[in-house]
Structure formats: C-alpha cells, structure tokens
C-alpha cells in the first residue's frame, strides 16, 4: 500500500487550495472528496462570490492582500480569468462604527477607498434608495470571483502539480498515529499528514477523534431577483454591496446581474441551523426570503419582490465568526481548516497556503493566533 505525504479530506475551496499548495511544494498528496465532483452539497458551489479587502479585523485585510496576489497567480498559471472588478459598497447607518474601523484598516494597508455621503451615494448609484443617515464606503478593487470555475481551476492545478483526486470516496474513519490510516467506504490509505477541510461535515470526522469544535452548519437560501428595467443593476453600473448591521438578521449582501443575465443575487448573511446530510429538510417557512424582499423594497426598489431563482448552500459558523486554522490539539500531524463562517471563498488560496505550511512545519506566512482552537476553551470565553 502506498504511503502519502499528505491526505486532504474535502474537495471544497479550502481543501482543494491546501492540496494544491502541498503538491506544488513536492508533497505526494491525495485529495479525498465524498461526492462525485463537481457537486452542490457543500459551501463552495455556485457561479459567484464577492472578493474585497475590507474587513473589520486587520488580520483579514492583511490576508486579503496576499489572496489578491494568489488569485492573480492562479489566473496567470491557468490562463483562466476568475476575477471581475466591479467595486464593492459597504453601507451602514449612523454612527458608521463598522465602516470607520474598516476604512482605517484599508488605509493601514494602502487600499484605495472612497467614503460616499448620502448625496454622492444618490448621484453615483441612483438605483439604490438610502435615507440620509446612511454612508457608504466604495472599494474599487472589490469584485466577483467566478466560484465554480475557480474551484475547478485550482483542482486542475493540483492535478498538474502531480496531485491525485479520488472523488465519490467518503472518509468513514480515521486512525491517528505516526502513520495515519484513513478509511473510506472503498479503501484504506496511509499518510504521514492529514488535513481535515470538510466544511459543514467537519465535526462528523473529528468527534471520533475526541474533538468537538463549536461549529454550526447553516442552510442558506441563495436568492436571485429580476431587475424591472433591463441593465439597471448590471456590472459597470451596480457594484457588489454589503448592507452592514449589528443585527445579523439585518445583514444583506448582493452581486450585480452577472451570473444569470437580468438577475441580481441578494441574500441575507445567515440561515437556519441544519444537518449537512439533510440540508433541504424543514425549509418551508422561508422567513429569510421575506426579510430580503422587505430589504429590497426599501433599498433596491428596481428589483422584483419575489425571487426568480432559489438555490441552496451552506455556511459553517464559529461563535466569533473567525476561521479555525490549527492542528488537532492531540494529534500534531492532523491539521484542521474549518468554520469559514460565510466568508471563506475569497481567502481560499491563503487558507490553502497556511494550512500547507502547518503540514510542512514551515513558519506560517500569516499570524494564526486569531484562528486557534484553544480560543474556545472555557477559560478564554
Ligand atoms: C450562499 C453563500 C454565499 C457565500 N458568499 C461568499 C462570498 O461572497 N465571498 C466569500 O469569500 N465567501 C462566501 N461564502 C463562503 C464560502 O463559499 C465558504 O466559506 C467556503 O466555500 C467554504 O469552503 P470549504 O472548503 O470549507 O467547505 P465545502 O465547500 O463544504 O467543502 C468541504 C468538502 O468536504 C467534503 N467532505 C465532507 N466530509 C467528507 C468525508 N467524510 N469524506 C470526504 N469528503 C468529505 C464535502 O463533500 C465538501 O465537498 C459564501 C457561502 C455561501 C453558502
């Protein structure tokens, strides 16, 4: 039986990026995915994701500086365009605490942005109706990542770097040790290192290894709304946006009509607790659809009041909404990437880089302190 340098469980954006980084660094790497690829059951499917530098936490802005470079590198290496620059607006009500922090982080890293008061906002984006107590920050470099294409591209870079993908292979058990045994329904593999990047299924794999992380999988309705007047919300006129609020039930985001012509993707930034193996059960009441419709009526009245298309996806959130990028507390050679809390796609290449560095015992390129598992231990809560 062959021994792998590394096995990565999970063919989503985080696992695939990690596998690619390992393979390009000379690790003999196997990527195991439970479903035949591509699939729509986890968190990384769909044609689009927002990319931006702006975050309330400076460590994410720093990582995003690296992420933009890595996405460009992926585009260069593959010859495939994955990023479309359309700008991103972050909107917030007085006293603008969130956008003030974000702006100071952007300034610290030299990222260009512009503050728009109510008059500028109306002039530049007449398709938005916001009362005077709202301000917006416009980051020019914000844009759209072609998500499905990006995932496929990274997986093919992984294969070109000598990596092996086995899809339709569900890992059912892990026996830790100096040489780890990874048991799938079909086979057993031996590896020196293991990366668990299993998205909403993470705890199902870790609990038998005596580790239960505070992860909550959420089922997310992905909604697409038709514009009443053709072209009003098209890229070039309409940027991506985030309507920021302290109340998670009032946080919305949107991408201009790009993915499906004439349909704008606008969603609530949360969902309902769900088992990833039964994601679509109990989804009748659609309270989130109502909240988005009410939001649109107030602020994007040029969109119809019922979604034309509804798809489904999953978030896996942590209590502080920060990622988990760390080793298993007991098993040094098991590395975990989880809890991407609905914002992890754009950072996928950086997550892959730092998880691979953990595996390869290299100094991480970024400060991983905010992502440590022990931040959840009782004494620190
Ligand atoms: C609607 C929606 C909108 C989003 N918008 C944005 C955005 O605009 N910008 C942004 O940056 N991020 C966004 N995100 C978040 C981002 O997409 C996720 O953070 C990211 O995709 C998480 O990837 P992952 O690899 O951790 O998880 P996943 O994609 O779920 O991958 C995990 C993989 O592990 C596999 N797996 C699990 N268990 C096993 C097993 N036992 N054996 C083998 N394989 C296994 C699963 O099948 C799955 O393929 C959004 C997410 C959603 C749902």
TrEMBL record:
Write out the GO biological process terms: L-lysine catabolic process to acetyl-CoA via L-pipecolate
Every FAD dependent oxidoreductase domain range: 6-358
Q: What is its EC number?
A: 1.5.3.1
Annotated Pfam families: DAO (PF01266)
Q: Name one GO cellular component term.
A: peroxisome
Its recorded reaction(s) are:
sarcosine + O2 + H2O = formaldehyde + glycine + H2O2
Q: Kindly list the cofactors needed.
A: FAD
Name the domain of life this protein comes from.
Eukaryota
Q: Mind listing the GO molecular function terms for this protein? A: flavin adenine dinucleotide binding; L-pipecolate oxidase activity; sarcosine oxidase activity
Kindly indicate whether the keyword Oxidoreductase belongs to this entry. Answer: yes
Sorted alphabetically, which keywords does the UniProt record give?
FAD, Flavoprotein, Oxidoreductase
Q: Which family does it belong to?
A: Belongs to the MSOX/MTOX family.
What is the protein name given in its UniProt record? sarcosine oxidasee (formaldehyde-forming)
Organism this protein belongs to: Lingula anatina
């Amino acid at each position: 039986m062959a021994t792998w340098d590394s096995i990565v469980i999970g063919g989503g954006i985080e696992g695939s990026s990690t596998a690619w980084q390992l393979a390009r660094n000379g690790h003999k790497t196997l990527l195991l995915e439970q479903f035949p690829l591509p699939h729509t059951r986890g968190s990384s499917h769909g044609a689009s994701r927002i990319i931006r530098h702006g975050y309330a936490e400076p460590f994410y802005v720093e990582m995003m500086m690296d992420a933009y470079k890595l996405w460009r590198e992926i585009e260069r290496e593959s010859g495939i365009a994955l990023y479309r620059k359309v700008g991103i607006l972050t909107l917030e009500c007085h006293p603008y605490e969130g956008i003030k922090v974000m702006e100071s982080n952007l300034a610290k890293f030299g990222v260009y942005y512009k503050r728009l008061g109510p008059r500028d906002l109306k002039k530049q984006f007449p398709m938005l109706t916001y009362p005077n107590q709202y301000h917006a920050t416009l980051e020019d470099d914000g844009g759209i990542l072609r998500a499905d294409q990006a995932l496929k591209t990274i997986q093919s870079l992984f294969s070109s770097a000598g990596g092996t993908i086995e899809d339709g292979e569900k890992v059912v058990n892990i026996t830790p040790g100096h040489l780890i045994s990874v048991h799938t329904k079909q086979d057993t593999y031996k590896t020196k290192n293991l990366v668990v990047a299993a998205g909403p299924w993470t705890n199902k794999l870790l609990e038998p290894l005596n580790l239960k992380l505070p992860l909550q999988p959420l089922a997310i309705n992905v909604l697409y709304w038709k514009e009443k007047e053709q072209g009003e919300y098209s890229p070039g006129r309409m940027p991506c946006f985030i309507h920021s609020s302290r109340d998670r039930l009032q946080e919305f985001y949107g991408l201009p009509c790009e993915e499906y012509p004439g349909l704008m993707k606008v969603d609530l930034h949360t969902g309902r607790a769900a088992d990833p193996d039964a994601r679509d059960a109990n989804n009748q009441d659609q309270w989130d659809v109502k909240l988005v419709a009410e939001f649109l009526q107030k602020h994007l009245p040029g969109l119809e009041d019922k979604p034309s298309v509804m798809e489904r996806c999953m978030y896996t959130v942590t209590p502080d909404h920060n990622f988990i990028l760390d080793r298993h507390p007991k098993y040094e050679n098991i590395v975990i990437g989880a809890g991407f809390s609905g914002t992890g796609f754009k950072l996928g290449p950086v997550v892959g880089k730092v998880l691979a560095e953990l595996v390869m015992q290299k100094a991480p390129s970024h400060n991983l302190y905010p992502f440590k598992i022990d931040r959840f231990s009782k004494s620190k809560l």
